[in-house]
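User: Predict the full complex structure for these chains.
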Amino acid sequence: MKFPYSMLLDYVSTELSAAEAGDLLTMSGFELEVLERLGDEWVLDVKVPSNRGDGLSVLGMAREVLAKEPSARPTELYEMAAKRFPMDDENDEGEVGCLTSVVIETEDCNRYACRLFRGVVDHPTPEWIAKRLELAGQRPISLLVDLTNYVMLELGQPLHAFDMDKLSGHRIVVRKAKKGETLTTLDGKEHELTEDQMMICDAEKPVAAAGIMGGLDTEVTGATQNMLLESAHFLNTSIRRTRKQLGLNTEASYRFERSVDPDGVMAALNRFAMLLTSVDGGASLVRGVIDVYPGKQAPRSIPLRMSRAVKLLGMPVSVDEAKLYLTRLGMNVDGDGEPFAVVPPTWRLDVEREDDLIEDIGRIHGYDRIPETLTQGSVPQGGVLGDYRRIDLMWEAALRCGFDQIISHSLRDKHPLDADCKRIGPRNPSSPDTALLRCSLLPCLADAARRNGGKDLHLFEIGRVFWAADEPKEGRRMAFLSTGSLHPEHWSKSNSPASDFFSLKGALLEVFQSIGVVPEFWPFDPSSGDARWHPTRCAVAKKHDLNLGVIGQIHPDIASPIGLADQTVLAEIDLDAALKVGASKLKYRPVSRNPAVRRDIAILIDKTKPYRLIEQTIEQAGGEVLERHWLFDVYEGSGIPEGSHSLAIALQLRKMGGNLTDEEANQVRDRVVAALESIGANRR
Amino acid sequence: MQSVEELEKQALGEIESAPSTATLRDLEIKYLGKQGLFTGLLRQIGQLSPEEKPTFGQKVNQAKARVQEAIHARQASLKLSERQAQFKKEAIDVTMPARPWRIGREHVLQLTANRIKEVLGGLGFEYFESPELELFKYNFEALNYPPDHPAMDEQDTFYIDDNYLLRTQCTAMQGRILETRKPPLRVFTVGRTFRNEAVDRTHGHTFHQVDCFMVDEGVSMAHLRGVLGQFARSMFGPDVKVRFRPDFFPFVEPGVDFAISCPFCGEENCPVCKGSGWIELGGAGLVHPNILENYGIDTDCYSGFAFGLGIERIPMMAYNVDDLRHFLENDLRFLEQFRP
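Assistant: Here is the predicted structure of the two-chain assembly.
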């Protein structure tokens, strides 16, 4: 809402500077966004909350200043406006009733009133009005149009001027459009109308989109002699729907959507008549008003308990103060008891219940007077608990493994690493690059890797992914990308290993184990059709038949086009699945004080035998004294038969409460080797 | 036969000129060992007269003690110089580059969220998450948005279909909590929100919010101000004050926007508060009684407060980050600048 300060001073007598008035409005809930000096005038631009349509007028701003600032006084013009610019002919149809008629055929119109003017001449708009309109950001057009705009700026009531002689049958019908009807609006656009759109019509056809924009054919021009001036009140949701459908957004529709004072209809007609007759002495006002008001609402009385007001505001406000504030805001206050009755004015449609009144009391009293009090009462357990904590643990484990966290956009474009699923995206995307919701975090990681040069990067992200099943779905994922050297290049020349499937597998195990889950890794099934992975270097992480995620090397056909090395490894965990797996119970095992004995074994075995089998065999055969075992060398090549490899495995043996003799240790080793031989291994 | 005095003199001389601790060890064996020269002297005691014997033994032992002492002294001094030589040889240039450890780094938004979780968790608020792909019902309807009201236009919404949208505000979590839990409630969330806005330095279509609410007996605006004050001081510094101004959000009544006194300035031309001394942070108010009543909560007994704010603002202000777009672009040169 932009207006010159001088217009406010028409209504309020005050010593406040424009800046001070702006601050006051800000602290009242109407934030001053811009204060500028244009020529010799200050112009304020304030943000009006969407529930306060009454603030979209100079009169509304004046009411707020008067309510908040006790030293400000209403002017004579304000007093007239408060009485709604009374005119002695406003209570009957007079001559107007003989010349035209108004019929309302839809419930979307609460009120329709009009006045007639004869013999209007296209005088120039008075300079002071044109200037004020320009300061308020409106372009002066012609006297009649400018006056409707000026009155709207002053009082908030949109008006529309019809050329009476162009109205078929000289009459007004407010109704829904009929199928096939069209309307060409003032901006020259033709609209095909639908049956739920409210139109102002003459005897035959729509002549204006009610509350939004007039029609081109019936607009007032320099040649207009007789004018019908409309002042009406329409249902806000109806206006909103139609203006969206027609793709129009006007000063009038903006106000109607946010609420206009239904009792201000007459005041606007009268104010217009006052202004026009003061400019155009020749224009004769036809006596009388047609005022059809089927939607008149009975005044609403709201009981207000001061005890509740004080309790909710958390600051002391006396009954007298509260009543004073409400009265200054135009409310009718009745009764002395608890509760007392408050009737809000017709322009305050936002005031529906007791707490709305309490807000008004609070903001006029001043929120700066509210003290800081700490909460009391029962305190539930706070913090990050349950599954949210488990996700935090996984996140911390990824950091400990040396992965850098990234956070990326969910709205994005297609990518070769997208999961194979039905995608969803906004119906109204802002650009093609952000038309889809991600279905996997891997594309985000790949983009981040590329942005950072694609080399020696170890990244992870936790976030949501989206896809369509019978309805749109959302899931939680954690994903990793690891490529290149695990440590940055350094002058000390110690070689840093490069990441590979197994380094990432190690990280993944740490991450799962942080929430007590020990997954198994099963070879990926290349016939699954998932072309993102290197078909023989990929695994599915599982627990109890639940798929927890995929880990593997990127498919070489995908890697180079997206700027990644062929050796890049990726993993994606389905957090929702992982969280379903209960944490395995931790059980303490006593620690032996006796020394450990190491025995190394070397076996030759077919490469197709999975290590999992070897591991199980070792553990079974090793028994209780086998504390730990690990693979420390893998060799194939010269001296090893084709299709086999040589594995060197360390066995760490230890007994509780006694030293293991050499002989005992050798026995365990031989047992293990024998067991391995039974699954096809040869001792080397 | 060599006299005790001569032997001692000879020993002390050799000790004095011993070039290394290794030589010194040899000297110790040569003079003081079981087969050493002093022991050799003692063996000659038989050739002495009975009167001379006791004093001779005494003399030898005293001389041995002095030699031993000289060896210790020489050893200490030799060790010192050997160490000095060693240290000189082992000298490093401490200004050479460190050998980097791979430490994973949190994203700056995560760091911010973590701090928020600590602070609100400490004030007794429990962390929750709710969907980003949200039902219209929870994003608007349950939050007391009147049907077809312009308040919804203020948040240009990405609609997926007639029921689903990308949540425009984390406040959408409230309905989901009120549906399943009864007061007393202290709950908060940190999450991602979406608005169909043109992207520039201070606007994005995707950003993050914290949203916090409490419902209990007798909760007032003063409690809201108290909790916000505590939150703001934990996040921004011990002297920060909170200011309320009236504002409208359909889900609160009274509704306010809240600002904090600028902790970064004191100057006229502060880049953060533009010299106004205040930084607007977010929206707040008492939970609208319509919402509580919709979920069967007796508003004569219970009331609640709620507040929300965008979290990108926090590092932007604290570190003078000039462009919102940095946060989701994942340039490590940007991200690695931030630490807990």
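Chain A touches chain B through 91 residues (CB under 8 Å).
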